[in-house]
């Protein structure tokens, strides 16, 4: 049943900060940052983008990415997301970037990958999946600032072995801007 | 109050896998992987280790590290952990490693850092904090396999600019071994 859930903010015993706590049973809903992982998937020099079929940002373009699940490694999660969103079987080449989005409690670990076997298609959460040349990327229709960031990180890295991963850009070092605020 | 909490595993509407759900009120306790961050803090060529005052692995040595909190960037979390566990003010130099510990649902993002101002001391969660030369590191008394891994990653990287971060070692690519199983 879905009776009202009565969460309040209070400081659990032995801790030093407020947590969301169920007033009825004492369950503490720790709000931890979540890990998003995904990939810039490259094929014939083009990058794969998925047009989102779900909110938030339905209709906008993103890389195949999503929340890591329990029991996965981070690379397994990135491969699963490519499979789910783009019906794509990818091989991860290395890490492009690690971004903190402090506004919403996310860490994004984003890889460079290639198609491990040919073919892709829109998965359940995508309206369409396409490969784009750099000059064709729909910059004004990207879903999130970090998609913009990581596409530039990929472009800047070139095609060779990857070095140190990028962090947040200097104009948003904590990941607190919303789209339309100069991201 | 702390009456019994009645969580069961069931598949929430619109999802495809079981989640821990409160049988009384329907609250879904999403079990997400958690982000641990920490640093190999280097001073005069020595590395800082903290002897844990808390379980698990009380009495064993670790780097200053812990769970990232909401509202932080990952670098802020690493600096906070050094402050809390070693009363140390650190400057992060770059990323040494990103490890997946699939057995317990962790991603560990581990940095190389130096002391930004002199001095350190045992924080509330540490019995003692010391700097160790490589040959003095208490290998048999390290708290976790990943401490072993990252100390080697630091040693292998040398003192210069950091390249691509290390991932899990080949003998535990998913992070599923326990200590004593050849970690
Ligand atoms: Zn409850
Ligand atoms: Zn409940």
UniProtKB/TrEMBL annotation, chains A, B:
InterPro entries: Nudix_hydrolase, NUDIX_hydrolase-like_dom_sf, NUDIX_hydrolase_dom, Nudix_N. One of its GO terms (molecular function) is hydrolase activity. Residues 161-183 are annotated as: Disordered. Its cofactor is Mg(2+). Transmembrane segments: none annotated. Keywords: Hydrolase, Magnesium. This is NUDIX hydrolase.
